[in-house]
């Protein structure tokens, strides 16, 4: 029997998200998540194909127990991890540094390198590693592949990737722009080319990945040439809880004058800033509801969010010189018509416009929202990071295992 299934695992510090896909038709056989790992009230939610979710709450001590619980749920649907139809496990790994430019079959050397990158990704890589080690212990014989959030951005030229600081200091500490959400930017830029009926090599696209975390990228002929996130996912756009760009001296000021510690500032900028810091809400639905009710604070938060977004559209327009499409994706980008409208408003001289009726349409399909005669296409392209991870994983190992 040929092995055509791929399990995609996204292991966070206290959660594991998973999807099992059949690569013959990219269908989802099951998906789910375990959250609050290590607490008394851990929760597992498992949804098989066709619906009918099963939920379970109780203590799940660690990632090992979490993955075993997931394996049990999959087995109940006849999709156990011991199935000969399972071709591989694909792991999302946040930071691949400069080393990993492509999805990579995991061995001891790869694990050691992901570990070596922990100083530049202290929040993410340890959790990713735990997930990989647990999955390898469960199925040591199965190929496992790391798909890196940074990989798509490794094509950036030095002029975009280097910060203008002392070169020796930067290199000693591996300080540079790495960028994140790369799996999404890769998937969406290719899907946008397809929507235009062109090959990725024939189009220049600005991708706006607007979820709780948010990032922009400039993609020339299928290759990333700039992106808004940097050494960490804190730089760039205004996000749900992260500040994005600001004068780095704000940090010294808060230390010297505000007497705040490094950890306090880290928490402030990563968890208490962005939309939630500006208006107390980080969900764009709630912010829009408040704006519509005349709430001034929510309006200011929205305006700051849009102002930053516009600056990146302008910057990447200039970086690319010629732009074929702008693609909105992720939770906000796919769903919030007012964000798309406001981001493009006033940019008609750049050939950018949104058709109100098309922008109002709700759909899960990639679609154009610009007027038919627009010089630059504006598109809404739902992202699918799990499918992209599964596709890359299967491309690497699928043939060998068949
Ligand atoms: P992440 O993967 O970064 O956690 P998502 O891409 O799932 O985030 O995006 C989540 C965000 O999308 C929510 O915080 C919310 O702001 C926004 N969102 C989701 N649905 C809608 C909607 N219908 N209208 C406006 N915003 C939405």
From TrEMBL:
Catalysed conversion reaction? acetate + ATP = acetyl phosphate + ADP
Details of cofactor binding: Mg(2+). Can also accept Mn(2+).
The answer to whether keyword Protease applies is no
Taken from the record, one Pfam family name reads Acetate_kinase
Main subcellular localization, coarse class?
cytoplasm
Q: What terms describe the molecular function in GO for this protein?
A: acetate kinase activity; ATP binding; magnesium ion binding
Transition state stabilizer, annotated site positions: 181, 242
Q: Is Kinase among the key words of this record? A: yes
A GO biological-process term? acetyl-CoA biosynthetic process
| Enzyme Commission (EC) number | 2.7.2.1
Binding of substrate occurs at 92
Active site: residue positions = 149 (proton donor/acceptor)
Q: In which pathway does it act?
A: Metabolic intermediate biosynthesis; acetyl-CoA biosynthesis; acetyl-CoA from acetate: step 1/2
Q: Where on this chain does ATP bind? A: 17, 209-213, 283-285, 331-335
CDD domains xref list? ASKHA_NBD_AcK_PK (cd24010)
Residue numbers binding Mg(2+): 10, 385
Which Gene Ontology cellular-component terms appear in the entry? Answer: cytoplasm
Keywords, A to Z, come to: ATP-binding, Cytoplasm, Kinase, Magnesium, Metal-binding, Nucleotide-binding, Transferase
Which cofactors does this protein require? Answer: Mg(2+); Mn(2+)
Query: Which family is it part of?
Result: Belongs to the acetokinase family.
Relate the protein's function as given in its record.
Catalyzes the formation of acetyl phosphate from acetate and ATP. Can also catalyze the reverse reaction.
PANTHER family in the record: ACETATE KINASE, ACETATE KINASE-RELATED
Q: How does it assemble?
A: Homodimer.
Q: Which HAMAP family match?
A: Acetate_kinase
Please report the name of this protein according to its UniProt entry: Acetate kinase
Task: State the gene name recorded for this protein.
Answer: ackA
């Amino acid at each position: 029997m040929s092995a055509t299934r791929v399990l995609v695992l996204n292991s966070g510090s206290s959660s594991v998200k998973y999807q099992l896909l059949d690569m013959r038709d990219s269908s989802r056989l099951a998906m789910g998540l375990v959250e609050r790992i290590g607490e008394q009230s851990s929760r597992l939610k498992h949804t098989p194909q066709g619906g009918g979710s099963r939920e379970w709450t109780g203590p799940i001590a660690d990632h090992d127990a979490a993955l075993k619980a997931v394996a049990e749920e999959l087995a109940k649907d006849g999709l156990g991890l011991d199935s000969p139809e399972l071709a591989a496990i694909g792991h999302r790994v946040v930071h691949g540094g400069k080393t990993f430019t492509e999805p990579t079959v995991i061995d001891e050397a790869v694990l050691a390198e992901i570990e070596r990158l922990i100083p530049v990704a202290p929040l993410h890589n340890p959790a990713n590693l735990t997930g990989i080690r647990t999955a390898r212990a469960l199925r040591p014989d199965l190929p496992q592949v790391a798909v890196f959030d940074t990989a798509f951005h490794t094509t950036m030229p030095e002029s975009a990737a280097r910060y203008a600081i002392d070169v020796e200091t930067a290199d000693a500490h591996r300080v540079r722009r790495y960028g994140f959400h790369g799996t999404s930017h890769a998937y969406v830029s290719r899907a946008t080319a397809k929507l235009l009926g062109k090959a990725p090599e024939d189009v220049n696209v600005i991708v706006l990945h607007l979820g709780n975390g948010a990032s922009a990228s400039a993609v020339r002929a299928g290759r990333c040439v700039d992106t808004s996130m940097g050494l960490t996912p804190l730089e760039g756009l205004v996000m749900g809880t992260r500040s994005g760009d600001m004068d780095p001296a704000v940090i010294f000021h808060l230390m010297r004058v505000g007497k705040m510690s490094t950890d306090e500032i880290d928490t402030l900028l990563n968890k208490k800033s962005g939309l939630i810091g500006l208006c107390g809400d980080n969900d764009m639905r709630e912010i829009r509801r408040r704006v519509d009710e005349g709430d001034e604070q929510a309006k200011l938060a929205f305006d700051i969010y849009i102002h930053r977004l516009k600056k990146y559209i302008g910057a990447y327009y200039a970086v690319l010189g010629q732009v074929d499409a702008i693609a909105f994706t992720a939770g906000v980008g796919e769903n919030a018509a007012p964000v798309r409208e406001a981001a493009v408003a006033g940019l008609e001289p750049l050939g950018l416009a949104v058709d109100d009726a098309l922008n109002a349409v709700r759909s899960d399909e990639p679609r154009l929202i610009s007027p038919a005669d627009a010089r630059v296409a504006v598109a809404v392209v739902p992202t699918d990071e799990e499918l992209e991870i599964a596709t890359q994983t299967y491309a690497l190992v699928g043939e060998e295992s068949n």
